[in-house]
Amino acid sequence: MQIGNLKLENTAVLAPLAGITDLPFRRIIRSHGAGLVYSEMISANGLIHGSPKTLRMLDSNPAEKPLAVQIFGTDPTIMARASTMVEAAGADILDINFGCSVRKIVKTGAGVALMRAPEAAAALLKAIRAAIKIPLTIKIRTGWDNTGVQALELARIAEDCGVDAIAVHPRTATQGFRGTADWSIIKAVKALVSIPVIGNGDIICAEDAIRMQMQTQCDGIMIDRAAIGYPWIFSEYLARINGGPDKAVGLSDRIDTMIAYLKATVDYFGDETHACRAMRSRLGWFVKGMRFSSRFRESITHISTQAEAVGIIRAYQYELQEWEEKEKNQEKLET
Q1: Residue 243 pLDDT > 90
Q2: Residues taking part in catalysis
Q3: Where would I find the H helices in the chain?
Q4: Contact assessment for residue 15 and residue 7, using Cβ atoms and an 8 Å cutoff
Q5: What is the structure's pLDDT at 330?
Q6: Where is average pLDDT lowest: 77-81, 312-316, 330-334?
Q7: Is 145 helix (H, G, I), strand (E, B) or coil?
Q8: For residue 246, is it within any domain?
Q9: Residue 266 and residue 201 in one domain
Q10: CATH number of the domain enclosing 53
Q11: Beta bridge partners of 14
């Protein structure tokens, strides 16, 4: 998939997820095959005012490239200045958020609020396009009603303003993440514009991603919540579209990924206590639906060092292996 002057190695994209898609998480997702990863949504105001916490969100690493950094805001001048900061920080793509439906963002006129202000959206995109040379993308919703009229209008405006690709999450502003994504909106946007269209919404497994592409003819697929705790969704999707064999995700795969994610987080924060505090909930993502998972999640609620966390992860691995061995022995006895 070609976005502006950037050619991606495949069509699988990690969506921006607030509080989740930080540098360590993006590195894990890239290692499982995603062709492009997105940062968390970043405040343009926070960037130009030099907020240390906001500026830290621009941190990147060669292992995660290519990287799209998403920003939000309403003022064309501020957004243009923030865009140049993103470009200078080494982002491969700049993305503008037109889809966030969180009340505090919408109240400022940013996010999905811009979808009912086409003139303001056009002014914003023109200012940003004039300020940067890297590819420019946007992420949109269906709009404020389910007709998709606002999505189509904004898509047309975006293409005219020099936007290089559009990601479409076909839920309305009021739906949030509830209900069902209307993939027909993705298809309609794809039929309208000549730039790449990336489909997003209700991709729970690799088969969903393939079905979306077949139904909408979108150029790429964007995976969001399904990637949390299951980065293998990317490699499974790529295996299917390339005709390769399915590879079952085993216990050792999960354990190795959890430890790699833990290490990447500790390396990123440079503070074991801070990193482990963040991982108290995140490690639990990877054991969802597994035997003894509630006990594991309870055991990691107080971790404060990497060694302690690894010890608990390994203990969980051994517990599962022992249970599997007992199950096998029981089956032999019964036969």
Answers
A1: no
A2: 100
A3: 23-31, 44-48, 52-56, 76-88, 103-106, 118-131, 149-160, 183-192, 206-216, 232-241, 251-269, 272-282, 293-299, 306-334
A4: no
A5: 76
A6: 330-334
A7: coil
A8: no
A9: no
A10: 3.20.20.70
A11: 37, 223
